[in-house]
Each structure stands twice: as C-alpha cells, then as structure tokens.
From TrEMBL:
It is found in: Cell membrane. CDD domains: TM_PBP2 (cd06261). PANTHER family: D,D-DIPEPTIDE TRANSPORT SYSTEM PERMEASE PROTEIN DDPC-RELATED, OLIGOPEPTIDE TRANSPORT SYSTEM PERMEASE PROTEIN APPC. The chain crosses the membrane at residues 28-50, 99-127, 139-168, 216-241, 261-284. This is ABC transporter permease subunit. GO terms for cellular component: plasma membrane.
Amino acid sequence: MSDAILAVPEKIPSRAVELWKSFARNRAALVSSVVLVVLVLLAICASVVAPHDPIEQFRKDILLPPAWLEGGKVAFPLGTDDIGRDILSRLLHGAQLSILIGIIVVTISLVVGCALGLVAAFFGGLIDTAIMRVMDILLVFPGLVLAVVVVAVVGPGLFNAMLAVAIVMMPSFTRLTRASALRELSREYVSASRSAGAGRFHLMVRTVFPNCVAPLIIQATLGFANAILDAAALGFLGLGAQPPTPEWGTMLSGSLAYLQSAWWMVTFPGACILVTVICFNLVGDGLRDALDPKLRR
C-alpha cells in the first residue's frame, strides 16, 4: 500500500478548542479574562475575604490613609472613609453588587431584546415597523440621560436603576437580533425546514435563533461593562443604590468633598470601575475576533 493510504489522518480540533486557541492569541483579552475571574471570585467570597463589615463604623479611625502610608493601620489596608468604614471591605462588597447588577441588567435586556427582535423579523409588516420605531425613539436619547429620566419617573433605588439601564441597553439587542434573524431567514436551511413542515415558533427558537447567538454573546459582554458603568453613574448622581449600600458609584459620590484631603476615598472606587469596564471591553473584543471566521483567518 502507498504511504497515502497508510497515513493516519490528522485530528481535527473541536470547535471549542479552536475558539479557545483563537481567543488565547489575544493577550490583552486573555489577561483581562484572568482579572475578571479573580474579580468574580473575590465578589463571591466577599463576606469571607473582607476584613470588616462594609457598613461597620470605626469612629476612632476616621479618614485613615492606606496601610503603607504614614498614619495608616494594617487593619485597614486601603484606609477608611469619612465615617470610619473600611474601604477595602466596601470595595469587595461593591464588586459583588456590581457583578449582580451586570447579570440582572444584561439578562433583562437580552431576553426582552431577543424576543422583540425575533418577533420583528418573523412577523414583519406593522409589527416590525412598530417595534423598530420604538427602538429608534429610545436610541435618540443619550443612554445616561434616558436612564436618568426613567429613574426620575419610577423613583431612585437600586432596582429602578437596573431597570432603567436595561431599558437603555434593550434597543441594541433588539436591532442586532432582528438583523441576524433576517440574514438567516434567507438561507437555504430555513427554506428546507419550512418545506419539512416546521412551524413559525420552531423556526424562530430552534432553527434561526441558535445561529444568531455568536454576535449576541459579544454584545452581552460589552453590555456588561456598560451596565456596570451606567449603574455607577446613576449611583454617583444619587439615583441608584442609596447609602450605606457599598456600591462603587455611591462611594465616589460621597467622597468628592475629600478629593484633596483623602485621595484614597476617590481613587480606589474609580480604579475598580475603570479596570472592570476596560477588562470587559477587551474580553468582548477578543470574543469578537474569535467568533468571527473572517477575523480568525
């Protein structure tokens, strides 16, 4: 027999392995994903890792600097705020709250947006026009301004802030789902499914939607960063989480008066927001490159 017949065929890598290798080539996205994993673990274990209760006040240790500066204490590694609360403990519990905000906001906007996008793509006509015109109206307003308007109507609070941010993010998921579904509806496999007797709901959920998931994953990752940033902005304006809730935006709002005398009160919450948002954006870029066949080649 010839060598060609006896040759063992090269093992074809699975889809997941191929995607991971493509994602791992992006060093920035890989490092960012590691940082996010550490952040999530710290948020989950905040009650164990935090040295103090986030709302406990140490009246004798007000405005202590970080432990490595003169006057600092090891018991408060990142210092204390204006009423003696440990900043590290509040940051760790704030991470827990920020991750929860991102999950809830992205879930609400993703579920509602995907449902509206699929309905608009499959039904068309007046339904499509009505849904997309509402989305266009929502897109006219800047995201933060619209969120402020919604919170002003329903009232300040953490849940209302999450609902407002979800409404702001919903048009992007709706338009992306509709565009992806319309593209898939022109494919031959959809026509074959129709010929085989598949109903509209089966086509919508089992046939078309799974092929629209890749861009939605990328949008959800980027939306996670926007959700955390917008929620922090609402907290900074006093429309989101209310004191003494340890939320990063609320911590920033309460520390502006001490910008020069106690810089650590402003720097550490701001750095947490900055690093988290950048990491989510870099991971989203890495997923986009890995899931797009053209960019992967």
